[in-house]
Amino acid sequence: MDQFVVRPATARDAAAILALHRRVAETPGGLARQPEEITADYVAHAMAAAADGGLNLVAVASDGALCGEIHVERMKVALFAHVLTELTVAVDPGWQGRGVGSALFRALIAGARQAAPPVGRIELWTGADNLGAQRLYERLGFRIEGRMPGRGRHPDGRLEDDIVMGMLLD
Ligand SMILES: CC(C)(COP(=O)(O)OP(=O)(O)OC[C@H]1O[C@@H](n2cnc3c(N)ncnc32)[C@H](O)[C@@H]1OP(=O)(O)O)[C@@H](O)C(=O)NCCC(=O)NCCS
Fold this sequence. Notes:
Layout: E1 4-8, H1 14-25, H2 40-51, E2 55-61, E3 66-74, E4 83-91, H3 100-113, E5 121-127, H4 131-140, E6 143-153, E7 159-168
Parallel strand pairs: 4-5
Antiparallel strand pairs: 1-2, 2-3, 3-4, 5-7, 6-7
Helix pairs in contact: 1-2
Bound molecules: coenzyme A.
Coenzyme A binds near residues 98 and 133.
C-alpha cells in the first residue's frame, strides 16, 4: 500500500518543493511552467503568497521524500477576498496515479472550509488537453466554468485553450 502523509508546508520544505516542481515540469502537458522557469524565487513567492491567507500542503513518503505539493493564494481585493486562486499542484512522476493528488486536494478543501476569514470559492485553470487533471478535479467537486481560447502558447507555437474550473464552498 502507498504510504504518505499530508501536512502543511514549512520554510524548510522550499528546496524539496523546488526540486519536485522541476522534476514534474520535465514532462510537458502538466505544469504551465518550463523547468527553467521554476526558480528559488518562484517557490519563495508562491510560499509567501500561500502563507498570506492561502494554503500550502505537502505529501511526504514514508522514506521522508516529498512526493507532492499544492498551493493556493487568497485574492487581496475585498470583493474577492473569499476566493482562493492561482492554484498549483504537482505530484512526483513516480507517485502519479497513486492517490497523492486527491489526498492533497481533499486536505486543501478541508483547510479552506476551516479558514478565517471564510473561503467561499476555490478556482483553478488547466490546459484543455490535460483531460486527466480535469477528470480528477470534477471528481473532487470542481465544475468547468469556461474556456479561454488560445491562452497557452507552447514553445513550438501550438496554441492550447485554458479551462476555468471552480468550486463554491457552502
Ligand atoms: C494531476 C496530478 C496533480 C494528479 O495527482 P495524482 O496523484 O496523479 O492523482 P490521483 O492518483 O489522486 O488521482 C488519479 C487521477 O488523476 C488524474 N490524473 C491526471 N494526471 C495524471 C497522471 N499523470 N497520472 C495519473 N493520473 C492522473 C486522472 O483523472 C486519474 O484518475 P483516473 O485513473 O480515473 O484516470 C498529477 O498527476 C500531476 O502532478 N501531474 C503533472 C502536473 C499537472 O498536470 N499538474 C496539474 C496542472 S493543472
